[in-house]
User: Fold these one by one.
Assistant:
Number 1:
Amino acid sequence: MKCPVKPLVAISRCLLGDPVRYDGRSRGDDFIVKTLSAVFEWAPVCPEVAIGLGTPRPPIRLVSRRDGVHVEGVDDPTRDVTGALGAYARRFAEAFPSVRGCILKARSPSCGLGGLPVFSANGDVVREDGVGEFARVLSEFRPGIPCIDEERLRNAQQRDAFVRNVLRATGNKNGSLVGQNGRFG
Ligand code: SF4
């Protein structure tokens, strides 16, 4: 069953198979590419490429500083892209006001929705509740927007709930893409 108007969903480009990861690879997800592409219209986004980091690029990570968590180069802490990622999240939110949901890459210092390691300046893990900077700022500009990562999408209940919430946010009150057994997919 297809929705007459596909809801617009922001998605990390690497999950669609684009080779934009820091190591030049992709993380294409079959379920997203083959199944969810029939349901959602994509607003693909790679914040790190969008702010000009290039591919491949040196890895970045979350680092706890006195004034908060920063996103810095692993090998070069002076390469601080916190502000650039946040500014891009704001521009993205403004450019895509009709986005009704987000599917973002787990464990990324830019796209991760939670549970990321936060390092000290010495490289020790001091917390494991970090959020990717793009995801964090985007959620400030779009509070309450349904978001999920590819790992939670593998859980049927969380996947169904995400699809329903996006449909409801699109104005589909009963979530008509959910199948007769009450589940999507
Ligand atoms: S996780 Fe986000 S920033 Fe990293 S490659 Fe994928 S889309 Fe780009």
Number 2:
Amino acid sequence: MDSKDNPEKIYPSGYEPKETHTEGNVRNLLLSEILKSSPTEFINTDLFTVMSKRRSTRKFTDRIVETVKIDKIIAAADTAPTAGNFQGFEIFYVKSPEKKQQLVEACNNQPYVNAPVVLVFCKNPARVKFDFPEEVLKKFAIQDATLAAAYSQLAAQALGLSSIWIGMFDEQKIMKILNIELIPSSVLCIGYPKQEKFPKPRRNLKELVHPVW
Ligand SMILES: Cc1cc2nc3c(=O)[nH]c(=O)nc-3n(C[C@H](O)[C@H](O)[C@H](O)COP(=O)(O)O)c2cc1C
């Protein structure tokens, strides 16, 4: 059944599913339609190429990021695994130029926080409906929010964009600016980089991995 057969189902313009489908999975269909939608230019989206090329950027051009790319970046977050599939996180997409400027101050005066796209990933342990101690639910929510942001960061790279992950911020200040009760876990700032840079070096893999027999 599609939206023509069922007037209650409304899809954002451009994301109406082409295939017929069964009841009950509309939300997932929207997600898959966004993920399947074509990029606006040719980009090598091979996962390992994306990973090997990603490099944090703190200088963005003024070029506006296309809505279809922002949709994909947000959809990518929604594909991340979450504890119990409870999705213990929320994304606040900051559009207000004034609030972006206020976030600069809340993020230890890091000027690049005023980026073309600013996503604040927050923990939402109340969504994690396990009968576990609160500490465990909080631990799950921070992992959910972190993974989601990491998926968005990779998606941004795959779409020819670059990003900077911000972890240095005053939680209370961000909560006040966004008028939210949830605690932020990271701020992801995205845009077109002024300059393509080589990925940063890492320590030797052998130092990183500790085989345990
Ligand atoms: C948890 C975390 C917190 C970070 N916080 C900041 C930050 O507040 N400001 C900043 O400029 N970069 C921040 N970064 C970005 C790192 O500096 C950057 O990822 C690191 O230098 C490695 O560079 P690469 O991302 O290009 O590989 C953070 C990254 C992570 C994962």
